Amino acid sequence: MAYLIDEQKLERVYLKSYHTIGRYKFNVDTLIDKPGVSRHHAIIELNEGKWFIRDVSTNGIWINDKKVDKNLPYQLFENDKIDFAGPGQNSFVAANLATECQYLVSQSNPKKVIEVGNQFLLPNEKDPTHIIYFEKLLNYWFLEDLVTSDRQALIDGGSISVMNDQWTFYSATSVPITKQLSHQIMAKPISLEFSVSQDEEDTHLTINSNGNAIDLGSRSHHYLLLLLARARIEDKDAGLDTDVQGWIYREDLAKSLGIQMNHMNIMVHRAKKQLTEALDESHPSSAFIIEARCGQIRVNCQDITIIKGSKLETRMSL
Question: How far is Cα 193 from Cα 217, in angstroms, rounded to an integer?
């Protein structure tokens, strides 16, 4: 986590990736209501893995007792002392300048901080009610209720209500440079091949992409995908249109798996994560192999092979 220490209050000031400081109460991230401090005094920003501060004030900023040039970015280092509006005045210390980190800070008790990562379960892994995860294709963090499947985007510096408390979400992450997508070779459709044991206790999954077979091994969430794949194939064989094939209500899927709804939703997220990590950026559609709508879910693939024991159970092709 990244934060300054207010030397007067001896409190932590957690940093957003783009953080404003000043005397304008309703339009800055950190308020310094002192004479000489401008309404918008300074901007601290994370850029390409480094933290920079920029003076946009009338009375200036001092770093380690040296005044910095106005409107020019100055790189911050840990233990730098920052004075606003005069040397020795309104002093803060850059105590931690970590990057690529996400955390929740309790609004009722700022000393209560939870560092989070992708697919982080709240309040704990044993009995979770929510999950925090990163959607790579959308470049957003989300909080999802594991019972209702409701989700909300997490905004750097935004508030969420969870675990009977209000929290502020911080995401110290550099925005990646936009990649040039022109002249790229179009990816061929992805196919899924399931190999399930006769007693259905073990389910192996292989993805075929652009002629390459990617072995994803045996995982418990592969059986979930297998059930979705069977539903998709059954609906196609029944003559249903593509847009209505394979949809299953989450409650019914959880019952078929014999597990609680929150456990089933965790399995869905683990399956999504494995699929997106297995395929490179030339396959952005990997994020949509599992689709969701209005309490329903399905596998979004039209090239599926299922082998049970050593015999072909069924196949669905484009």
Answer: 11
Query: How many other β-carbons are positioned within 10 Å of the β-carbon of residue 235?
Result: 19
DSSP 3-state assignment of 226? helix
> Under 8 Å CB-to-CB from 316, ≥6 apart: which residues?
229, 232, 233, 236, 302, 303, 304, 305
Amino acid identity at 237 = D
How far apart are alpha carbons 179 and 100 in whole angstroms?
20
Alpha carbons 255 and 257: distance in angstroms, whole number: 5
Averages of pLDDT over each 10 residues, the chain, 318 residues: 94 95 92 94 94 96 96 96 94 95 94 93 92 86 92 93 95 61 51 95 91 91 96 94 93 94 92 83 66 89 92 88
Compute CA 117 distance to the chain's CA centroid, rounded to the nearest angstrom. Answer: 8
Q: Is the peptide bond before 123 cis (omega within 30 degrees of 0)?
A: yes
- Based on C-alpha coordinates, what's the Rg of the chain? 25
> How far is the C-alpha of 169 from the C-alpha of 114, rounded, in Å?
10
Q: Which two tokens stand for residue 111?
A: 């000393």
* Residue 311 tokens, joined: 């015999």
Cα separation of 290 and 284, whole Å? 13
Question: What is the rounded distance in angstroms from the CA atom of residue 12 to the CA atom of residue 80?
Answer: 15
Which pairing describes strands 11-14 and 2-6: parallel, antiparallel, or unpaired? antiparallel
* Structure letter (DSSP) for residue 278: H
d(CA 297, CA 311): 28
Beta strand pairing call for 191-196 and 304-308: parallel
User: What are the C-alpha distances in Å from 314 to residues 233, 234, 253?
Assistant: 8, 10, 20
The helix, strand and coil proportions of the chain, stated in percent and rounded to the nearest 5, come to 15, 40, 45
What tokens does 235 get?
């609906």
Total-model pTM: 0.76
Distance between CA atoms of residues 73 and 56, nearest Å: 10
